[in-house]
Specification:
about 200 residues, alpha+beta, Jelly Rolls, Arc Repressor Mutant, subunit A, 2 domains, four-stranded antiparallel beta sheet, 7 helices, elongated
């Protein structure tokens, strides 16, 4: 976890429950809260005018999300949507600022988490400029595998659908399906009951 849950509650945090596909905040909303996930997965995304979805990140148990906007005072340029049923601690902005002002260690914990996340973001951004679908998909899955500390061949089960894989890479679903089948033939991935193992 990024910040101690008991400290968040004692500072005025409230427990929020979000159902699958429920919006936590929308693009254009003003940042009013610090959010930290107790359980569940949230997707940070945008929708294009043509309806295509781009997923930027998927914070899960123990992660915070969109906390940088508390400090910038700019409206959200993203959406946060529950991918699973979620329990989230929500702490009002002013209470959050007071809490972290009381301890430099809290700010350091938050900054360390943000720095690690930015490393991942830059890898994801550089992946968008790649045109080869196989390279895009391999680099994305490899990034998730490394982040989750899996090392052996086929030891990591990619937890997202082909549709979500398309949203991460900017590829069409059809291209993802075709490419993943080729990757299976080339023994880059293994597919078991529709799940991708890398």
């Amino acid at each position: 976890m990024v910040l101690n849950e008991e400290l968040l509650f004692s500072s005025g945090g409230e427990l929020m429950h979000y159902n699958v596909d429920e919006t936590i905040f929308s693009e254009g909303d003003s940042p009013r809260y610090y959010f930290q996930i107790i359980t569940g997965t949230v997707k940070i995304n945008n929708y294009h005018e043509d309806g295509r979805e781009i997923i930027h990140s998927v914070p899960f148990d123990g992660h915070c999300f969109a906390e940088t906007f508390i400090f910038s005072n700019k409206d959200y340029p993203i959406n946060a949507i529950a991918m699973t049923d979620c329990k989230v601690i929500r702490l009002e902005k002013n209470k959050f600022i007071s809490m972290i002002n009381s301890s430099p260690e809290l700010l350091m914990n938050l900054y360390t988490f943000t720095a690690e996340r930015m490393h991942y973001r830059y890898i994801m951004l550089s992946n968008l400029s790649i045109t080869d679908p196989r390279t895009k998909i391999t680099r994305l899955i490899d990034c998730f595998k490394t982040y989750n500390d899996f090392t052996g061949p086929y030891s990591y089960q990619f937890p997202f659908t082909r549709q979500q894989l398309a949203a991460f890479t900017g590829l069409s679903v059809e291209t993802v399906i075709r490419t993943v089948k080729k990757m299976e033939k080339e023994k880059i991935v293994k597919i078991e009951t529709g799940k991708i193992f890398y």
